[in-house]
Amino acid sequence: MSAETRSAAATTAWHRGTIALTLIEDAHPGSGAGGGGLDGLVARDRHDRPVIWASHLEGLLRDAARRLYPDHLVNVLFGRAGGQRQRAVFSSLYATERPTARVWRATARASFDNRAPRADTLRAHEHVPRGTVFTGEIEFPADLVDTLDRLLKELDAVGHGRAVGVGRVRIEFSATPCAPATAPDVPTAATRMLLRLRAVDPLCIAATATPGNLIPTLAYLPGRTVAGALAAWLVTNGHQAEAEAIMGPDVSIGDGLPLPESASGVSPDRVEVLPAPLTLMSAKPPGQAESVPWWSTDSSVPERCDGAARPKATAGPKLKRPEPDLHVARVDGGKWSAYRPETRIRLRNGRPIAGQPDPSLFAVEHICEETHFLVEVRAACETLRSLSAALSPILARSRWIRVGRSGAPVEVAAVAFAGDQSPPPAPADGDVLLILTSDLLVRDDRLCWRTAMGTDDWAALSGWPGSLTVSSLSQEEARIHGFNATSGMWRLPIAGIRRGSVYRVEGAGIAELARRATAGEWLGERTHEGFGRFRIDTSLPGVVKGATPSEPGIVADDPDDAVARTTCSWFDTARELAGRSSAEHRRPSLSQWHDFIADLEARGEQAIAERREPTTAGAAGWRHRKAHEVLTRLVATDPDERVAFARMFVRWLRAEIQGVRS
């Protein structure tokens, strides 16, 4: 961004717009995935409600802008390859409710003059029913109000099949100026600013410098990522001095660690969160007897214990280390709870090479929207005052920052200021645990990066109490990647020691080490980017001392599995419905079963009543004794699940028919 553009952005008033999109025809926003007998599922959010991704909305508006405006204005609105970021930031459009999906089926004809369907071209796509309302937001400069209003009026359809009338929409757009913000009051003794961030859209923090078909994400926001996002916003809005301060050595920004849903509404100064220590182990799944599969055991919330506290010779279940995305948190000093942030995978199309004729399919892993993160910013009180004044629109929730791949919008949900914590009292036996809460970067005598810390390596750290003895309980290597936005290239990967590594510390200098942990005097290099943070504790967070892992239990069946098992028993007693009809033994055809499902979705029990008492010659097949039994069993099911039972029964019937006739 040029100096003129930055100056204009700093003096421009900003608006927040609201989009209300109503479907006037069924729509398929698309997800690139299939399942449950469907070839195309609609995209859904973490609450399983349909969603229209911001990238799809921006693509449609970009096409409209290219028809109406010159290229330079299109680049201002939607960005340009090479570093020019878009000025209008869109959130995805989320459905306000969870409607019942509709299934459309289509096939290709055998030839131009033969309307018989080709068996290998039958496709079933899930659609969002008309009448569904999606809502989203836009943040943009005030001078783009009329332009965006015009572009949204050009948008008449979304999703797949727009050329044939699918996905037609009606859009209502309103915009209001962002409310003026005042700097929050910073207490005199404050040395920490605690931020609770909320992801407005899914976040992808690329965990590799060489992505392939799958771009994995970290489960947290690295401190350098948060610092870069804040500095980019400050530079864009004319706060150059504060941007330089936030990237300098006098300000330390920690990692943004995800919070559990139970703590998403809690003030940030009441929550403690840290990556799971590597000794917080859980029992491996035991061998299964008879025909019980391994995936039927409850592995979502396993009981965990201090694996390092159990002697190796002790008999018991085998233990495994925690997952890389496992975290532990507690509120107001209460009980620790272990959890993992929800992540999903989204399929995308793109052209990594300019001029590539066909798009390439790749997958992006992301942290789900509405995930909250806790970030700690450490600095002197005067520095915090200047930063909070410059960041007041963000702290007041009237503006967004952009984080991660594609610059997803993130807002500050809550802010709190606090001073240094009181160091915990030194234990009488002189034995504590040192737990790394972020990756540690340390060089050896040859200036190479250490991937493990030995007993004698700690003495070389700056400010380390020389009277302490350290032994490793569990440590691992970590690869740290990064991206340099100035050069537009990836940073050279470096090696470090993984966050969550646990060490036992003994000696007379424990009190001094605890003071350094509470005063923010971190270990190793690049501590202002969040590296080298640690915690001193007398017991392992997340467990009760002496606890042992319990045997996993058997979980309840998935609802789809229960429906499949019930309808399979129906089909076993009505297998003759898959045979061929004759003049004496007429049966409903497969197409009649499909028509019945569509009619059942539209009219409910009335569709069953008409087929139990057919009045036309074409419906005589429903008088078959076994067909009548199936209809009777459908009447006895829950009305909300009746369509699912009917659809699953027809899948068994279709599989049998195709197997017999092949």
TL;DR of this structure?
The chain is of the alpha+beta class and 662 residues long. Strands 1, 2, 3, 4, 9 and 10 form a 6-stranded antiparallel β-sheet that branches. Strands 11, 13, 14, 23, 24 and 25 form a 6-stranded antiparallel β-sheet that branches.
Overview of this protein structure:
This protein has 4 domains: 3-109 and 117-177, Alpha-Beta Plaits; 192-284 and 303-352 and 359-418, Alpha-Beta Plaits; 431-537, Immunoglobulin-like; 559-661, no CATH class. The N and C termini lie far apart (64 Å). The strands form 10 sheets. Strands 1, 2, 3, 4, 9 and 10 form a 6-stranded antiparallel beta sheet that branches. Strands 11, 13, 14, 23, 24 and 25 form a 6-stranded antiparallel beta sheet that branches. It has 14 helices and 33 strands. By secondary structure, the protein is α+β, with helices and mostly antiparallel strands. The longest helix is centred in the C-terminal third of the chain and has 20 residues, at 642-661.
Map the helices and strands.
Elements: H1 3-11, E1 14-23, E2 51-52, H2 54-68, H3 71-78, E3 89-90, E4 93-95, E5 102-106, E6 109-111, E7 114-117, E8 123-127, E9 133-141, H4 145-154, E10 169-177, E11 192-199, E12 214-215, H5 223-236, H6 240-246, E13 252-253, E14 257-258, E15 271-275, E16 280-283, E17 304-306, E18 319-320, E19 327-331, E20 337-339, E21 343-350, E22 360-367, E23 372-378, H7 381-390, H8 392-395, E24 401-403, E25 408-418, E26 431-436, E27 468-474, E28 477-480, E29 483-484, E30 489-490, E31 494-497, E32 502-507, H9 510-519, E33 534-537, H10 559-573, H11 590-603, H12 605-612, H13 625-635, H14 642-661
Parallel strand pairs: 12-22
Antiparallel strand pairs: 1-9, 1-10, 2-4, 3-9, 4-9, 5-8, 6-7, 11-23, 11-25, 13-23, 14-23, 15-19, 16-17, 16-18, 19-20, 21-22, 24-25, 26-32, 26-33, 27-32, 28-31, 29-30
Helix pairs in contact: 2-3, 5-6, 10-14, 11-12, 11-14, 12-13
